[in-house]
Amino acid sequence: MGKYIVKRILLLIPTVLVVCVLTFAMMRMLPGSALDFMVKRLTAAGQNVDVETLRVRLGLDKPAVTQFFIWIGGVMRGDLGNSLFQYESVGGIIARELPVTLELGFLELFWTILFSVPLGLWCAARQDGIPDYTFRVFAIIFMAIPTFLVASVVLVYPAAWWGYAPNIKYAGLFQDFRANMGMFLVPSIIGALAQTGMQLRMVRTCCLETMRTDFVRTAWAKGCGEGRVLVRHVFRNSMIPVVTVIGGSVAGVFGGNVILENLFNIPGVGQQLITALDQRDYTVIQGCVLVMAVIVMLINLIVDICYKWLDPRVELD
User: Fold this and answer.
1) What is the Cα–Cα distance from 294 to 19, expressed in whole angstroms?
2) At 163, phi and psi to the nearest 5?
3) Which of 243, 255, 235 shows the shortest CA–CA distance to 296?
4) In this structure, what are the phi and psi dihedrals at residue 204, rounded to the nearest 5 degrees?
5) Nearest Cα to 286, choosing from 13, 10, 106, 17?
6) Contact between residue 272 and residue 258 where contact means Cβ atoms under 8 Å apart
7) Which of 105, 115, 122, 145 is the most buried (most CB within 10 A)?
8) Could you give the CA distance from residue 127 to residue 219 in angstroms, rounded to a whole number?
9) Taking CA 131 as the corner, what is the angle to CA 250 and CA 107, rounded to the nearest 5 degrees?
10) 224 — alpha (psi -120 to 50), left (phi > 0) or beta?
11) What pTM was estimated for this model as a whole?
């Protein structure tokens, strides 16, 4: 196990390098540049702009390859650089806003698991019944409707009909729990809907396959109760594919949070990323994408390690 973990961590290095190269290249391929945005903003403020001096100050006077190696050298030293527009280190910005994004993401995963696993197991135990068909229909609906559409509807119609709107003033989880949940509860449930639909169908399918195996039939024949058979025999032996899908959905959760954070005014990395993209703040974009990519890769590593816990027969090479 230890050798496998070390091997996987070492494999993260080339993956992270590829992410850095792609992110850096794509930022330079976007129309417009940080220099254009800065000149436009200063000109609108009535200031005289020396374009060449500004180019040197932003570090954009060097060739793109040189800029990349300067940035990647800083990353290797733990320095993500400074924001071009906020006069603050990228590391400081991410350290302040990453806990907010992680809270939203983990809440979404919590709701996904809370709803999908029990309902999927119940649907498998009551196959082809009315509840089974009902939950399967809702699962397909949740998967089909875009998250941003549900979020827009929830923001517009309750406000128009009942004067309700989610809290838009951020409060820390341990600072004011009620205000924190007032901001995070609705968007986290909305973000969990699509994942819940997919996970519910996956849990149901895997449990149905396990219920047809010999050891489950033997458990029934020995007179084990339904709850014990479903939880101890069916559920655990069906979890490896489900855990795989949960791990794979982490990237989707963080990607969807970019939209949710902006719609619900949640001050996380997603909202910062959109602002930086609008301003072409290269260092902030590169730092945010890099940190989110590392988090996704680490969670996938944890998922792989969970295989061994769920099924001791699994060999990790």
Assistant:
1) 9
2) 70, 20
3) 255
4) -60, -45
5) 17
6) no
7) 105
8) 19
9) 25
10) beta
11) 0.82
List per-residue pLDDT tens for the chain, 317 residues long. Answer: 677 778 778 888 888 889 889 988 888 887 877 887 788 777 776 777 777 887 887 787 888 888 888 888 888 888 888 888 888 888 899 998 888 888 888 888 889 888 888 888 888 888 888 888 888 898 899 888 888 888 888 888 887 888 777 777 777 777 888 888 888 888 889 888 888 888 888 888 888 888 777 777 777 777 777 677 777 777 777 777 777 777 767 766 766 678 888 888 888 888 888 888 888 888 888 998 888 888 888 887 887 777 666 666 666 66
Tokens 């417009």: give the residue: 32
Burial of 86 (0-12, 13-18, 19+ CB in 10 A): middle
- CA–CA separation, 164 vs 157, rounded Å? 9
- In total, the chain counts a number of residues equal to 317
